[in-house]
From TrEMBL:
Positions of the UniProt region annotated as Disordered: 78-100
Organism: Mycena rosella
PROSITE patterns from the UniProt entry: FE2OG_OXY
Phylogenetic lineage: Eukaryota, Fungi, Dikarya, Basidiomycota, Agaricomycotina
Source organism superkingdom: Eukaryota
Protein name, per record: Clavaminate synthase-like protein
């Protein structure tokens, strides 16, 4: 794993210690640093973001155990055929890369949300299979929801707004937790089929937990079309802004294109790139609340570029395209 110092030297993403925001000792300075990183790269690394390392380790263990189940077990919690129903298990090949090559992506995933979401009910394993799985996923979902709320408070302060400005727009927790398993595969296969293709997220903010394998890359804001690594840093969470927040901020903060490739110089095992596990948490504004450009992001000289919209309409229109709709 890279050290924070290496990342600061080699990449453009800031590494920010969130402790002084959470304990209230230096909120504004932390908020300003986070906002500055979102404006330049769309990403930030956060240290001391408020989740115990053991809780993160536990969900990675649970994820590994889930993906190690036989296919008939995993498939007994299938993602539904609708392209917009992002719940349950999707095997390798069920998503397409929307980048230049439009090939299948070499990952399997499990997606879930809050348990009382009537529009998109969760899809769990049948009773008796990994009995702790549901509770572990939901515990981690709510831990992530808390982290995201704190980041949105920092973002509001950075933007010169009331700290709870974003709260009312995210109170529904219309969020999604995804467990990803990028399967081990020969390098040639991964050179022709992305682990995850170039995309930007549709969210307000995304939290990304990754193991120590690496391979996440983001588009260099200074050189569109070329990518820089966002390597794992021990104990740090990666946070990135999504398209909805970029639009909401009248394009004053960036949603940056990113992808997952085999990590540069990775050691193959038996000619194969090692598998990788990651856990993104997609934090969305309430699907039913109309939002208009954030105060302070527009004025007579920088008029609003966008009409008011709900996150539900915006996001569902976009994610329907990501799945092939046949499975
Ligand atoms: O697995 C990763 O590192 C990135 C995942 C990602 O970008 C996504 O699911 O939107
Ligand atoms: Fe993403």
């Amino acid at each position: 794993m890279a050290s924070p110092e290496d990342v600061v030297k080699n990449a453009k993403i800031s590494v920010v210690d969130f402790a002084a925001f959470l304990d209230g000792s230096n909120k504004q300075a932390v908020a300003d640093n986070i906002l500055a990183s979102f404006k330049t790269t769309g990403f930030v690394y956060l240290l001391n973001y408020g989740v115990r390392p053991e809780q993160v380790a536990t969900i990675f263990d649970v994820s590994k155990e889930f993906f190690a189940q036989p296919m008939d077990v995993k498939s007994s919690a299938p993602r539904l055929a609708s392209g917009t129903h992002h719940r349950g298990y999707s095997p390798v090949g069920h998503t397409k890369n929307h980048g230049p090559s439009y090939v299948s992506e070499v990952n399997e995933r499990f997606e879930c949300g809050r348990e009382d979401d009537k529009r998109m009910p969760n899809v769990w394993l049948p009773d008796g299979k990994m009995p702790e799985f549901r509770e572990s996923c939901l515990d981690f979902f709510w831990a992530c929801n808390e982290v995201a709320s704190n980041i949105l408070r920092a973002l509001a302060l950075g933007l010169g707004l009331r700290e709870d400005y974003f709260h009312q727009y995210h109170a529904a927790a219309d969020n999604q937790l995804t467990l990803f398993h990028y399967v081990s595969a020969p390098l040639e296969v991964l050179e022709q089929n992305d682990r995850i293709g170039e995309h930007s997220d549709t969210t307000s903010v995304t939290l990304l937990f990754q193991d120590d394998v690496g391979g996440l890359e983001f588009e260099d804001p200074a050189a569109p079309g070329s990518f820089l690594p966002a390597p794992p840093i021990s104990g740090a969470l990666i946070v990135n802004i999504g398209d909805f927040m970029m639009r909401w901020s009248n394009d004053t903060i960036r949603s940056t294109v990113h992808r997952v490739r085999p990590p540069p110089g990775c050691q193959t095992q038996d000619g194969k790139v090692p598998s990788r596990y990651s856990i993104p948490f997609f934090c969305n504004a309430n699907f039913d609340t109309v939002v208009d450009c954030i105060p302070g992001t527009w004025d007579a000289e920088h008029p609003k570029k966008y009409e008011p919209i709900t996150a539900g309409k915006y996001i569902l229109d976009q994610i329907a395209e990501t799945y092939d709709g046949e499975s």
